[in-house]
Predict the structure.
Amino acid sequence: MLRTLIFTVVAEGRFLQNAKLPNIIFILADDLGYGDTMQASNITSSTRIPTPNMQRMASKGMQLTHFYTSPVCTPTRCSLMTGRHTGHCSVRGNGGLYTPIKDTTVAKLLQKTHTTALIGKWGLGSRENGGHPLQHGFDYFFGQLGDMQAFRWYPYQIDRQNESVVLNDMDIPASACMAGGCQWVNDVYRDEAIRFIRNSAAQHKPFFLYLAPTTPHWAKLPDVDLHFPTPSRYFDYEIINPKWPRDAQGFAAAVLAQDHMLGLMLDEVETLNIARDTLILFCGDNGMDLHRRSNFPFNDNGPLRGFKESLHEGGVRQVLLAQWQGMISPGSVSHYNFAVWDFLPTVSEIIGMPSSSLPQHDGVSLAATLMGKGRQQHHEHLYWEHCSGFPDENSYAPGWVQAVRVDKWKGIRVNKDSFFLYDLDTDMGEQHNVAKQYPEVVTNLLRAMQDRTENEAWPSSTSELKCCQLCESSDDYCNLRGNQYCPGYNGSSLKRS
């Protein structure tokens, strides 16, 4: 039965090489700013966090400079899995353990032909509410189920399949963890991903690996004067400027650790001689977070305005790096508007899955752009919505926010009254609101903002921020999943309170 299915898929595929289904690796960094990949995206700056492997991947593959996600972690992950934008996806804010993923996932589609694995942060539900990765197309899961759980970089335990596994001694001092006294979860993910790739290659069956580390996202330990407690070995002072503030060095070390992880994945497929059989994609899930108010000596945003939680470009725009040796032209660049919800139709087209067999989705396939073959599909519009509990430092207050991009135009509506319009061709930094000059454009964008369905768990509201309350409470999270997943720090130790 499987042999017949693979034959049918290959026969219909337009992009397959040697009639062989490709392996697919998607690496999703956590809170990586647009400027953190500045070397890869050719953004000039006097100070940079070096990212040699991102630059290496860009030189061997393609940069997609207009690639959009969501303003916070979990809806990006929902869109990546389902091909649905935030106006249609079942999870529209952080807090997937409360409102689990419900739509058909790309993993479910690929499970017919690939071995599927999720290693890292999930955020889209648990077994108790029907949102566990194993219930949505993944053959293997090793990681952290929830957003709050993923804040812990040296956790007591994490999940493997349906069971919890102990990772660290709860009584180890936090400072000892940075010095190597316990396991850093991102190193664990790195090693597990390498094992999965090796085992899958040995079995000669195509695989789909969704690798979702928590770098360079922040985490805080009580007895360490550092918001980014990356292991000390990543503080390479030949690369990281020792004159930078300590927190800046810490964040730079987390970006370096992410870059190092990416490099090891690139090395592995080359060592196993499967680089010509493997499509690798890499980007961040949203814009930079904690240090947005800090005076850091590097420009994480590049030329963009806004941060995580914002629907300005700095909150939702990324550089997507794509590599597939022999299929994607080295050093190529695309400036088309694409989004994370394009992943599902893209891989479906690449492996030859008929479009009629796909679930309802909002994406377009970017296969023609990646491979340089055929006519590229285009979005009529890109849509976002977000219930923000935090003020945007630049333009709008907390509340219900929608945004739409149509070609060069970007519109942002706040609390269903204030409207901001930007011409991104001439104003990439969104500094000039031209809504009054172009009322017909505003009308068209407002019409596009109707492309959504109401969601009981994440309702649009101008008075109560109902969609923000659940996701912000770590106590509620721990009560739901059990305290062993959220050890409260007691003094300077990892011991649960």
